[in-house]
Amino acid sequence: MVEIDNILPLVSKPGRYSGGEYNICIKDKNAVKLRFAFCFPDSYEIGMSNLGMQILYHCLNSESDVWCERVFAPWTDMEQEMRKNGTPLFAHESRDPVKDFDIVGFTLQYELCYSNVLNMLDLAGIPIYARDRGEECPVIIGGGPCSYNPEPIAEFFDIFSIGEGEEALPELSRLMIEMKENGTYTREAFLRKAASLGGFYVPSLYEVKYNENGSIASFEPIYDDVPAIVKKRVISDFNDPKFIPTKPYMPFIDTVQDRITAEISRGCIRGCRFCQAGHVYRPIRERDVDVISDAAKKTFENTGYSEISLSCLSVSDYTRVDELCDTLLDWTNEKSVSLSLPSLRADSFTRELMEKSGAIRSSGLTFAPEAGTQRLRDVINKCLTEDDLMNAVGIAFDAQKTSVKLYFMNGLPTETDEDTVGIADLAHKVIDKFYATPNRNRHRQPQVTVSVACFVPKPFTPFQWEAQVTRAELERRQKLLRDSIHSRKIRYNYHSADVSYLEAVMARGNRTLAPVIAEAHKRGIKFDAWDEYFDYDKWMECFDACGVSTDFFACREIPEDEILPWDFIDCGVSKKYLLKERHKAYEGKASHSCKDGCGGCGADKMGECICRNQK
Amino acid sequence: MSQPKVSFKYFLRFKKHGTAIWISHLDMVRTFQRIFMRAGLSIVFSEGFNPHPKMVFAVPLPLGASSDCELLEFRLEQERSPDYILQRMRGVCPPGIEIFSVENAERKFTDIRYASYDVYFSREDMEYLPAIVRRFNELDTAVVMKKTKSGEKEKDIKPSVGSVELTDFGIKAVLSVDSENFLGPELFMTALNSVGAQLGLAPVKYEAVARRKMLLQDMKSEF
Ligand code: SF4
């Protein structure tokens, strides 16, 4: 156990590190056979709000001989004190050094956390490169959305868990326990066996060769018993209550998502062509109303939270959304628990849904048209029309709402200036709609917030081959949009092109990025996801120092026949389908949603998909 | 206008120690709100646009200090026996928050005038304490700079000090908690250290501080 009581008084928000939160899992360390340190490579507040971590903590701790604990990236003031005192990275439940654990897992939620991963390993006293780790080191495993292209960080990890971890991580833990008990455990033997469990990728067991231009020439396992394709894992039964945490740990300090989060579905029927989540979380599964409601009720009793938020990619696409709301409201009203539905879609937005959703209490609503013209919305397969949007904001204004937030993207494939200006037009029309609504709120002015992200080509999307437009061009379009907005009732904010550029490099990177990330860590880069720490120039210096081209990864259109760094992963959705969707995009044709018929993406081979219930 | 609701007022007494000493005042409000929810007790909320639970903690406790004698006043929508409330709440508290009694609120927190603190020091610092405490007790005034909304202000904290005693772990201090003369352990330490500085001593730093008792005007009877 490390001593931190002497440094807690010196740092901001000591509640980030003190531990002792309600519902955490405490076990007798001498009575368990495996200790799992689950690391979130960002601040405590962000990590504690993450549903995936909550679920896997629950699933691992359901194993009687495994003890899973939480670890977060200490904020910079804490890190400074820890380094000064020689205090190593510790787990929050036991305050034992992470280095003493059997397995150390990192959940990789966004590319900009990579520098933090290395910093945490370093703070733990664990060598950052997998090849430098000895028998005494814990096995380092990665998972989460970024593991769909783990290559940039492949050399820092011993294993990646691809896909859903609820069953996979306990399986991996049992394998280690078994090998340690029967005396067959060595690092090497374990990694080799893990590779054939299914759903686990062991980077050191694959060899990558490159062409002269830097693209991949071959990507092959070095042993015959190592699978050439790693198939992602999908849980056996999305309705099984054993996968649903009903005693979630609760932070004392204020965090982003401090409420009951009820997961209602996985996957998305829409297939927006830029969206990675919409593809990699397929097959599409909906949890039964009763299962959701029972779990939420138990969670309420175990937490005392006064708000339930439904989690999924698009709430209104849930088939029985009305029934679900009614079933929940049945008991939540009586207990004064409120319900909130995020991510309502404008094309299925109704007054009734708004009233049930808790949106009725807030002063504003959020919609995501993503593109400014119908042409471009067809290209990206965002099947939302201007009429849908006008109808939705009309309902909102009629219900006395005055503010609307609209999400868009800049730099999408085939985007022209007309599309960019179209964003401003749409925002102006929403203002006009406000004044054309007879029953509008007469006491307040309308406000439209236009929030524009930059397109980042992501693995396992129909746009995975696209080039990102250059930063200079992105900035030109951002300025064009600003100049096209003439109303002071429209607020405009946009993402930094620098950040999106680095994201694109990492998202489509390969193993040649490892030295760059290691260099970045060496130069003290960390907390890249935070504006106050993100330092573009410093990153570019690292790329230069390592002689690695960033444009090669971000701004190059990848030929369709080139081997992609992530081709060895089978995420369910087939490359053939992605290509077909890409070609349709260039024809300006949208695809129908999975509810109107299966589009044949291939994800159903992984398990039950919504299309099987469509008969 | 809605009718003012009938409500029932109680006190609860609890200890705060272990990891819970790092829960700030604001977070304590939320923490207790959820303890009440888990216990199935409906606390009364304020009216208005942004309702907040009607809860009052007796005397602010600095972050990082433990306490044996915290007090919380709250209102319930239904009348419950103190015993029932205690039983319901006990099993649903985070570690380090230990509720040990509930009673009907018949007195007022304003009766609390002083609190007694145990302040713990390292062995090295202990050597300087006798001289500092002796000198401090001889002085008629002890002026420190106190942060206020409009910058810093000089303040004589001597009238806020009930007593300062040397012990084998450090100091036992009785300090005023009156709103006018409130003196927390931190500012008290600043005062001690400025006395130390006059004696040519380096500042001492406490390792831990524990509030032991809430006291009435006579500095002896407990609230
Ligand atoms: S298998 Fe069919 S229904 Fe299922 S996600 Fe793919 S396209 Fe949609």
Descriptive report:
- The complex is a heterodimer of chains A (615) and B (223).
- Chain A has helices spanning 44-48, 51-61, 76-85, 114-124, 165-181, 187-195, 277-280, 289-303, 321-332, 351-356, 374-379, 386-398, 417-436, 471-484, 497-507, 514-522, 536-546, 551-554, 575-586, and strands spanning 34-40, 66-72, 103-107, 139-143, 159-161, 200-201, 206-210, 216-221, 230-231, 260-263, 265-266, 285-286, 307-311, 338-340, 364-370, 403-410, 447-454, 490-494, 569-570.
- Chain A has 615 residues and is α/β, with parallel strands linked by helices.
- Chain A folds into 3 domains: 8-231, Cobalamin-binding domain (Rossmann fold), CATH 3.40.50; 259-361 and 572-615, Transcription Regulator spoIIAA (2-Layer Sandwich); 363-495, Transcription Regulator spoIIAA, CATH 3.30.750.200.
- In chain A, the strands form 6 sheets. In chain A, strands 2-1-3-4-5-6 form a 6-stranded mixed sheet. In chain A, strands 15-16-17-18 form a 4-stranded parallel sheet. A 3-stranded parallel sheet of chain A has the order 10-13-14, with helices on one face.
- In chain A, helix 9 links the parallel strand 13 and strand 14 (338-340).
- In chain A, helix 4 packs across helix 16 and helix 16 (514-522) packs across helix 17.
- The longest helix of chain A is centred in the last third of the chain and has 20 residues, at 417-436.
- Chain A is globular, with a radius of gyration of 24 Å.
- The model of chain A has no long low-confidence stretch (mean pLDDT 94).
- With 223 residues, chain B is an alpha+beta fold.
- In chain B, strands 1, 2, 3, 4, 5, 8, 9 and 10 form an 8-stranded mixed sheet that branches.
- In chain B, strand 2 and strand 3 (66-76) form a beta hairpin.
- The interface between A and B is medium-sized, with 20 and 24 residues.
- Iron/sulfur cluster binds at residues 282-284, 594, 598-601, 603-604, 609-611 of chain A.
- Iron/sulfur cluster binds next to loops of chain A.
